[in-house]
Amino acid sequence: MSLPPEKASELKQLIHQQLSKMDVHGRIREILAETIREELAPDQQHLSTEDLIKALRRRGIIDDVMKELNFVTDSVDQELPSPKQIVAFDKQSTLKKTNIDPTRRYLYLQVLGGKAFLEHLQEPEPLPGQVCSTFTLCLHYRNQRFRSKPVPCACEPDFHDGFLLEVHRESSGDGTRMADSTTMLSISDPIHMVLIKIDIFGETTLVASYFLEWRSVLGSENGVTNLTVELMGVGTESKVSVGILNIKLEMYPPLNQTLSQEVVNTQLALERQKTAEKERLFLVYAKQWWREYLQIRPSHNSRLVKIFAQDENGINRPVCSYVKPLRAGRLLDTPRQAARFVNVLGYERAPVIGGGGKQEQWCTLLAFLCRNKGDCEDHANLLCSLLLGYGLEAFVCVGTKAKGAPHSWVMTCGTDGTIMFWESLTGHRYIHKPTNPDGSPLAEQPKPLYPYRTIGCVFNHQMFLGNCQPSDAVETCIFDLNDESKWKPMSEDAIKSVCAPGATTSLPPFPPLCASTIDASVTSNEIEMQLRLLVSEHRKDLGLTTVWEDQLSYLLSPALASYEFERTTSISAGNEEFQDAIRRAVPDGHTFKGFPIHFVYRNARRAFATCLRSPFCEEIICCRGDQVRLAVRVRVFTYPESACAVWIMFACECAS
Which residues does the UniProt record annotate as the domain Centrosomal protein of 76 kDa C-terminal (predicted)? Predict the structure, then answer.
């Protein structure tokens, strides 16, 4: 492998800097003097290079240098493509092997342990190999996402992770020049930190969500600072401390010139002041808009017109800020596949202490994705963002379902005037055809198939419209959003002032989606083996033997693939081949029964317990008779963020 001359000189310079930093030359001189004094005979005046290298190796000097100098090599026969392949090292050698570009600015964030997580004060020390609840820290900064290693839950959790954040990125439109302190001071993006807890059953809980202001490091000596971050709870516990993290921030390469702390504090104070003023003006406008809306019809007071919503930290934010065009890259190919992805993310209402109805909590996107589940509003906001990313005119609708329960769903408006409702919790789509309340009783009216009853408002990242039609019933609603006699709009400029990207520093940036880390084949096999064991044990308890038919199990695969394809595309395909294969496989005089079921989690025991609650499935699993053969097939379909659809099919054949 050959290096260009400029790269070779750059590499030599880096090695020379490191050797000087470790004072290797001084240590070599000492060992040289010591070796001559101790090991050379009086008549021997010459010390060979080999003798010196042996002495250096014996005293561990060469090992020390090699530990300090790390090089990333992808493969021996590859050319070194760019300076990004050179490894960085800091004064304490905290940066290990990593790809880095010496011409870019990085922030190295280290989490050096936690303390005062008092909820886990009585938590016993986990035994080696014992399954225990764990904490995981998730970070997002300027389109980069990171995840810490899981650590056992404890009063003082043993977090020891480092994250290399690129502050200055060409993809963010920052140009090619290395950013100086003044340039970085104008980068107001915070580091969003989300702490999740995963219990021994694999259930994920959101513990804390924190926005770290990192720019204090620009005013610190040597560009290094240590912070103590107090994490507050979420939802109803947003005023309660859950624990403290010790964090070290370090700029790399080190800053040639640091700013005074006063300059940094002044900049941050100005940004806060500007944000507060924009938010105050929007609040004044929103109050005026609401007064005008009530003047149209006093009954509007009871409609679900939601202008602000509380996030997981209890902060009121305009609903339009929860939606933004989101591109899924190559992770999702179609809008319907995006709807399926959102549908397989778990549904969970915000936890509430005691009774008294629903606790409101609209999560920021990172918090929703990290815990892999959320309320209907979280699903609707994500689906609307993805559909906007696909170039559709999409809105989140706020209203009620059949029994009057508040609900959110998504609506798209076609260029031909077609109104389509998307249910984000199920992936179902419904075409809306309004009924005419003044029409003749004999005239045939379209029968609505959707579960929605009333609608109060619709919104996306640029528009907010309140429903001001005489009735808020969905079935009679006209979705001509340009007609101000039917929909009262908010000023787009007012929305833009607080919801446009970069408009305010309090606006959480949207993270990119991450590819799945689940191996679908391995996971399918694991769940299938566990289910076979559970079925055998269950039948043994009933005094029944179990014989598995592997070929029949394999023949169930096309059916499971067909079911998932139908969920994703709304097109049914492949059933004829499946039915033909089953007819050929089941002997004459035998009966075949099959039971497919779908889950969005990978817990085999929980899935089995759910299956047994179905009388039809229990009949298959507990089948009695002559020549009973059982089959089970599991197929896991993976989606971004490690979400997955798990299809299971139990089947049996027995003599009639």
Answer: 517-654
The amino acid that residue 210 corresponds to is Y
In a 3-state reduction of DSSP, which class is residue 181? helix
The helix (H) or strand (E) run that includes residue 522 is helix 520-541
What contacts 573, CB < 8 A, 6 or more positions away? 562, 565, 566
Helix runs in 345-375, H state only: 365-371
* DSSP 8-state assignment for residue 596: E
From 158, 167, 166, 168, select the one nearest 137 (Cα to Cα). Answer: 158
CB atoms within 10 A of CB 537: 11
CA distance 312 to 367: 8
Three-state DSSP at 487 gives: strand
Contacts of 296 (CB under 8 A, 6+ apart): 468, 488
pLDDT of 152-179, one tens digit each?
999 999 999 999 999 876 555 555 667 7
Q: Decide: 654 and 559 in contact? Cβ < 8 Å.
A: no
* Structure token digits, residue 548: 């598995």
Beta strands (DSSP E) in 56-178 are 106-115, 134-141, 144-147, 151-152, 160-166
Distances (CA, A) of 202 to 134, 135, 184, 352, 602: 10, 12, 40, 21, 9
Burial of 605 (0-12, 13-18, 19+ CB in 10 A): exposed
Q: Which residues of 188-218 are buried (b: 16+ CB within 10 A; e: fewer)?
A: bbbbbbbbbbbeeeeebebbbbbebebbebb
Return all residues near 23 (Cβ < 8 A) that are at least 6 apart: none
Task: Give the residue from 517, 508, 587 showing the smallest Cα distance to 551.
Answer: 587
The rounded Cα 92 to chain-centroid distance in angstroms is 32
Kindly report the pTM of this predicted structure. 0.82
